[in-house]
């Protein structure tokens, strides 16, 4: 007779004591052996099926005694569950050795990305408490990189009070990357659409307004010349000049912005003396500032060498100084400060103007937000200049922001990389 298991031997011994014919015992023994072989074959087929899956497959058991102490779910060394099965794909996704995992199943908490761990554990606790399916998506740190996974398992309550969870584990890293790419593309499309809307809005309205003024007041100016009304001629000539300056500034910004967005404006840094650049830019506003009795102060070293794109930084300064004058009351002042720091050049354009509210500040540098307001003497604007400033400053590896107090004044600050020639 072949070696028998302990339980099988007990059955045989009992049957022997009842004087049952040995042939019957042998038959029962053969059937028992056959059942055992069939069960082992089914078990192996089950393993083969599970291991052939492209997803992780696992089964764990939470003994009734452990389900009460929910603090165990937070433990790495004393987890409340026992791993009964995990296929090769499951171990591959987590990069764990099956024997180690069976011995210490709580180590999975160590793989969860720090900011996702609390959510993972709480959902485990809630699912075990309610015996509802467990579904979780999050990040794991495996093989020194972050991967995205999706867990999904269903519970079965056993008669003895234990709960068996059978589930699957998916590596969804590629899917998440695709989703992020789509989100990024959608964001870019949104910005491009906003740029298109902004462009057409400027063409349709903002650019039309100064030319309407130029045409309209030019006609009145002709009438005043005919009637030799000197005061009227001077008044309307000033209006035509102001409207022409606005149209010219707007056209300049539009052309620069269009060139920048289509890639035709190339960032070409050269050796630049910032002091000379600022002095030249300020000279453009001498007459406008004088007309509003505004003093422009420059407070920085006579030599400030920096490596920058001259045209871009000049455009940034031009727009910030123009805005400062526009929103400063008659008799106020505008100051320009610059200093070389360890890693960048910092420039501050301040005014004693009307200031900007917090609600408006958040909209200033965004192409998708329509915001424009008139100056202290009803000077018009489009908001495009600040968007252009942001674009050009970022091309220099810098940042731009604003600090302001309502009815006190504003300071527009920007930095550019301190790459000296």
**Unreliable parts:** none
Name the strands of the widest sheet in spatial order.
2-1-5-4-3
What kind of oligomer do you see? Answer: single chain
| Secondary structure tally, helices | 14
The number of distinct structural domains comes to: 4
Envelope shape: rod-shaped
User: What's the average pLDDT?
Assistant: 82
CATH architecture of the largest domain: 2-Layer Sandwich
Q: Which CATH class of the largest domain is shown?
A: Alpha Beta
- The SS-based structural class is alpha+beta
**Rg, nearest Å:** 39 Å
Query: Beta-strand level of the residues, as a percent range?
Result: 15-25%
Overall strand count: 12
For the largest beta-sheet, the strand count, sense and barrel status come to: 5 strands, antiparallel
CATH-defined topology of the largest domain: Heat Shock Protein 90
CATH superfamily of the largest domain: Histidine kinase-like ATPase, C-terminal domain
EC number: 2.7.13.3
Catalytic activity: ATP + protein L-histidine = ADP + protein N-phospho-L-histidine
InterPro entries: HATPase_C_sf, HATPase_dom, His_kinase_dom, HisK_dim/P_dom, HisK_dim/P_sf, PAS, PAS-like_dom_sf, Sig_transdc_His_kin-like_C
Organism: Ancylomarina subtilis
Task: Describe the protein.
The protein is of the alpha+beta class and 421 residues long. It has four domains: 1-52; 53-171, Beta-Lactamase, CATH 3.30.450; 207-265, no CATH class; 268-421, Histidine kinase-like ATPase, C-terminal domain (Heat Shock Protein 90, 2-Layer Sandwich). 50% of the residues lie in helices and 21% in strands. The chain is built from 14 helices and twelve strands. The protein has helices at residues 6-17, 22-51, 88-94, 98-103, 108-111, 114-130, 173-206, 208-226, 230-261, 274-283, 286-291, 310-326, 358-361, 384-395, and strands spanning 56-62, 82-86, 134-142, 145-157, 163-171, 270-273, 295-299, 305-308, 333-340, 344-351, 400-405, 409-417. The strands form three sheets. The chain has a five-stranded antiparallel beta sheet with strand order 2-1-5-4-3. Helix 8 (208-226) runs antiparallel to helix 9 (230-261). The longest helix is centred in the middle third of the chain and has 34 residues, at 173-206. The radius of gyration is 39 Å and the shape is rod-shaped. The mean pLDDT is 82.
